């Protein structure tokens, strides 16, 4: 079986930055085990698989090299980029049927905007193993899908050197650990870590901003914000808080276009 495949860098306007995702076009769904094997073979943070469903609608699933995810921002952005730029979809708005509900993506020039559910976190107690492994004492701790550790400044986020051997003692699947702080040149910054996973630090995590956007909107008193994820590759996100929804906008670039061969 020969399947069209794209490798897209999401949340960036520069190749080799942002978060890389695989995008695989299907006519019908493959067995879950096969899609998981493809994602493991690609060894990208996420591989997205989609099936056209007619009238600018698509069914969409996401896989890390280890598990199927319930929500993924950057691979959704990469999929929309592929549909708009390589399938020549005429509409400027498409929708995806996913495990995380109906998600829409709109196009305005080269900027793509994800309409995602808001996941406002609640105050939480921080497990001792996370505080020890992160090596930073946060000023606030919150939790939705992910633990959100609010720190004092951007330098703490940039300089953080988590101890994976400690953090891997806790299994948070499908969640992770976000560290975040006010930004020096943007509204807020963050980094994202997933314990017991093949890829420990995610370069740019759209789904994490489902919690970061409402949290920072409340703290800053702003509806529209610019965020920077401070991984080695980095990525910029343009954020809007809509109460029960969040808008996450960014750019994307195609790195590779080809085919994969599946038995």
From TrEMBL:
Keyword check for Isomerase, yes or no.
Answer: yes
Q: Does the keyword ATP-binding apply?
A: no
Q: Which InterPro entries match?
A: Phenazine_PhzF-like
The alphabetized UniProt keywords are:
Isomerase
As for family, the record states: Belongs to the PhzF family.
Query: Matching NCBIfam families, A to Z?
Result: PhzF_family
Quote the protein name from its UniProt record: PhzF family phenazine biosynthesis protein
């Amino acid at each position: 079986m020969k399947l069209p495949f794209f490798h897209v860098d999401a949340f960036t306007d520069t190749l080799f930055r942002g978060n890389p995702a695989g995008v695989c076009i299907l006519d019908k769904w493959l067995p879950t085990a096969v899609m998981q094997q493809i994602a493991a073979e690609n060894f990208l943070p996420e591989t997205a698989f989609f099936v056209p469903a007619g009238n600018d609608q698509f069914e969409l699933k996401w896989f890390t090299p280890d598990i199927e995810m319930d929500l993924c921002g950057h691979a959704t952005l990469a999929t929309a980029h592929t549909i708009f730029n390589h399938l020549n979809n005429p509409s400027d708005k498409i929708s995806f049927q996913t495990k995380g509900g109906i998600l829409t993506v709109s196009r305005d020039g080269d900027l793509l905007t994800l309409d995602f559910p808001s996941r406002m976190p609640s105050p939480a107690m921080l497990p001792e193993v996370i505080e020890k492994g992160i090596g930073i004492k946060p000023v606030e701790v919150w939790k939705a899908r992910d633990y959100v550790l609010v720190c004092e400044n951007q330098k703490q986020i940039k300089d953080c050197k988590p101890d994976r051997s400690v953090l891997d003692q806790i299994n948070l699947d499908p969640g992770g650990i976000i560290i975040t702080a006010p930004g020096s040149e943007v509204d807020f910054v963050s980094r994202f870590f997933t314990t017991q996973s093949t890829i420990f630090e995610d370069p740019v995590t759209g789904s994490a901003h489902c919690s970061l956007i409402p949290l920072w909107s409340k703290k800053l008193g702003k509806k529209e914000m610019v965020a920077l994820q401070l991984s080695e590759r980095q990525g910029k996100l343009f954020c809007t808080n809509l109460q029960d929804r969040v808008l996450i906008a960014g750019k994307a670039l195609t790195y590779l276009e080809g085919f994969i061969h599946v038995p």
